[in-house]
Amino acid sequence: MPGSQTLGNILVVDDEPNNTDLLKKRLERLDYRVDTAHSGCDALKLLHQADYDCVLLDVMMPEMDGWAVLETIRSTPAWGDLPVIMLTALASRNDTLRAFADGADDYVTKPFEFSILLARLRTQLAKRMAQCQLEKLNAALKTEVEERTGSLQKSEALLSSIVENLSAVVGRVRVLDDGSVALDYLTGSVSTVLQASPDQCLAKPDVLWQRLDEGEQNKLAENFQKAREGSGSLIHDVRFKDEEGMDRWVHLGAHFRDEECLTLDGILLDITEQKHLETQLLHTQKLEAVGQLASGIAHEVNSPAQYAKDNIGFMKECFGDIMPLLKSQSELLELARNRRLTEAEIAKIDEVRERSDLEFVLSELPDAIDQGLDGIERISNIVQAMKGFTHPGGEDPESCDLNKLIEDTVVIARNEWKYVAEMDLELDASLPFISCFPGELGQVILNLVVNAAHAIDEDRAVEDELGRIGVSTRFYEEETCVEIRISDSGPGVPDTLKHRIFEPFFTTKVVGKGTGQGLAIAHSVIVDKHKGSLSLDDNTGVGATFVIRLPQENE
Q1: What are residue 181's DSSP bridge partners?
Q2: Residue 173 backbone class (left: φ over 0; alpha: ψ -120 to 50; beta: rest)
Q3: What is the CATH number of domain 9-124?
Q4: N or C: more exposed end of the chain, with fewer CB within 10 A?
Q5: In the chain, helix, strand, coil percent, each to 5?
Q6: 331-350 in b/e burial notation, b at 16+ Cβ within 10 A?
Q7: Which residues make Cβ contacts (< 8 Å) with residue 271, sequence separation at least 6?
Q8: What's the pTM value of the predicted model, to 2 decimals?
Q9: Is the distance from CB of 518 to CB of 534 less than 8 angstroms?
Q10: pLDDT digits (tens, 9 = 90+) for 319-352
Q11: What is the per-residue pLDDT across 85-129, written as a single tens digit (0 to 9) for each?
């Protein structure tokens, strides 16, 4: 595992030297030690010569390709648990499934964002570090049992040292007859992970429980009961408030050690930083979506800007035409104050009036002003929509006008749908403000609207034929929740695929058109972060209708 000088030893395998050199430079700048190989055979030689913490492996290589290298790694006992991330331009579902079936730990398609690759690399290194630490722990405990030479205190000291390095807490919990719990032991980074001292936790075992909101308590209690009645294993990410009121996250992994399910051994890992990185990744994906829509947004701005410019130019011409008339009238008025006007003087101003085409100017100028103002207003609306959409938001829910959020999102996506569909908005005017994360909710709505436009476009028999996209909102007062329905007149989702649409990497689009991440991320945002639901309505008869239900308050 990585020493004090590096974050990890990485082997990059790619038959393109430019690719390996670039990755090597960028990773070494972040304190990773990197070796490179330009063929499968060279990679295997290096694996025999040095210990690596992760392999970044290209698939398409001459002679010995990445599949063969992966098979050799997994069939060699010394490398059996070595993390392997496949890097390839192959983006089909079959290639992805093959990679995981053959033993790859992750799969990244080219071209990729370095930040995404780095996040996945860090995840694999963290998993490997935890695995190595746990293997050391198991070896130490096995030796302790077999030799019976150590004492319980030494074992606990060793365990505590390892867990401290992992920012984790290991403990044993017993369920008492009255339903309360007692801690038999607790060791590790207790103060860091639980934000409480070991003595506080032992004296009051429910110290973490009391820091959970009602929703988190209900989820944890439900999963606890399922573990007792089912597999006996409890896995749950828990969010709680520290003493300063800041959100923290721990990953709970535990197992009942007796048939009566009364004693639970478990570990708590601090995953607060990981959750923050996930939030940053969501914001990055939102900016990527804006980047993909940039040309369309530029077109939407350019059109009103053009006719605003044209109308202002027309007004300038009109002003030039009537200026001589205004000047002549001013001169004539001055003459009229001093004496009676001659016929020649009156004829002269009539001539100027005729040249200025005053009747035309007076009839056209109001429309030109209105059109110019309309163009500027449309540009302003687009800019305001973009400003709200790209705002990163905070860690706490905000009060949000859901109808306005939908209108802004539809404006941003206009160039994606206006050539393939008509947009029907049926927004409940009585809809109250809701507590949510506007940026992430806007991203979900954007994904669903763009998906609807793509579905209609792929199913059109006639190019000029327009489909329909509908977005509606409704407030259910008795349930204190709101509903968003996004429907389209596309081909719909086949019955055989409906149960898979929210799976990561699953997509019905052609190769290169989608990553299969949009609906998976949308489902996570709605269910995990907003405590709501995202489903596909099976009763619409035509097209597809996605239904989002959100609680009015998301505390």
Answers
A1: 175
A2: beta
A3: 3.40.50.2300
A4: C
A5: 50, 20, 30
A6: ebeeeeeeeeeeeeeeeebe
A7: 237, 249, 250, 251
A8: 0.43
A9: no
A10: 776 777 667 666 666 666 666 666 776 676 777 6
A11: 998 887 788 888 888 998 999 988 888 888 988 998 999 898 888
Domain residue extents for the chain: 9-124, 151-270, 292-387, 393-551
Tell me the CATH architecture of domain 393-551: 2-Layer Sandwich (3.30)
Structure tokens at 266: 């478990």
With tokens 């035509």, the residue in question is: 542
Residue 410: both structure tokens together: 């539809």
Q: Which residue has the tokens 């204190």?
A: 480
User: For the CA atoms of the chain, what is the radius of gyration?
Assistant: 33
The domain defined by 151-270 folds into Beta-Lactamase (3.30.450)
CB atoms within 10 A of CB 410: 19
Q: How many helices (H) and strands (E) does the chain have?
A: 18, 17
Long-range contacts formed by 94-103: CB under 8 A, 24+ apart? 95/59, 96/505, 98/67, 99/59, 99/70, 102/67, 102/70, 102/71, 102/74, 103/70, 103/71, 103/73, 103/74
